[in-house]
Amino acid sequence: MTQVKICGLTDPDLVRFAVQKGADWIGFVFVEASPRYVTEAAAATLLMQVGLAVPVALLVNPNDAQIERIVALGIRVLQLHGSETPERVAEIKAAKGVEVWKALGVATPEDLERAALYTAADRLLIDAKPPEGADRTGGHGLAFDWTLLQGWGAPKPWLLAGGLTPDNVGEAIRLTGASAVDVSSGVERLKGLKDRALVQAFIEAAKAQ
Q: Is 145 a catalytic residue?
């Protein structure tokens, strides 16, 4: 059954709802440029609702001090969504003793080749490249050509992200063979605000595959 990450949650009731409906991971965005940004203080409250789901911190080029504070909250998965090098990912993994994911923006086959460099990452998140001039690295609701992933020999476990919705996630899983998917804007009716019906529909559609 496909695993599902619901990312960018900011409301405790929606965290609890997503977990009840079967979300495997709950993502919290610690990036001020995002409409889904949560403070570390707010995250402490949100974390009380994650239940059996695994909380994930989305970070962009974090320094060691920020990582220390995030880990102190009880989060054990760091999703690095910036320009972190393979060496930086390895350094964080070795020093902090937490699970580390690396997000990669993909538009061409050459972009996928970069995945092999991140040997220290526990998982990869394969996302669409952000638009030119974007002020943040993800959450744009854009998809990429999923056929690029057909026959791809992934070097690590991975999640598919970028432009996924309840209506297209089934097709995306069938085309790519993804065993895990990540959604944020695709379950929102207003930017930054998750919709319960869309969250439930997405989880159900993904796990039906």
A: no
Catalytic residue among 127, 135, 167, 182: 127
Whether 26 contacts 55, CB under 8 Å: yes
7 is catalytic: yes
Dihedral over Cα of 144, 145, 147, 153: its sign: negative
Per the residue annotation, which of 7, 145, 182, 195 is the catalytic one?
7
Distance of CA 46 to the CA centre of its chain: 17
- Note the pLDDT of residue 140: 46
Nearest to 5 by CA among 61, 58, 73, 67: 58
d(CA 57, CA 80): 8
Sort strands 123-128 and 99-106 into parallel, antiparallel or unpaired. Answer: parallel
Tens-place pLDDT, residues 49-62: 999 999 999 999 99
**How does DSSP classify residue 33?**
T
Task: Please report, rounded to a whole number, the percentage of residues in the chain having pLDDT higher than 70.
Answer: 95
Q: What's the whole-number mean pLDDT along residues 86-90?
A: 98
Residues in the chain: 209
What are the pLDDT digits (tens) for 97-130? Answer: 899 999 999 999 999 999 999 999 999 999 998 7
Cα distance between residue 50 and residue 158, in whole Å = 22
Q: What pLDDT shows up at residue 142?
A: 74
Which residues are CB-contacts of 111 (< 8 A; sequence separation ≥ 6)?
104, 105, 129
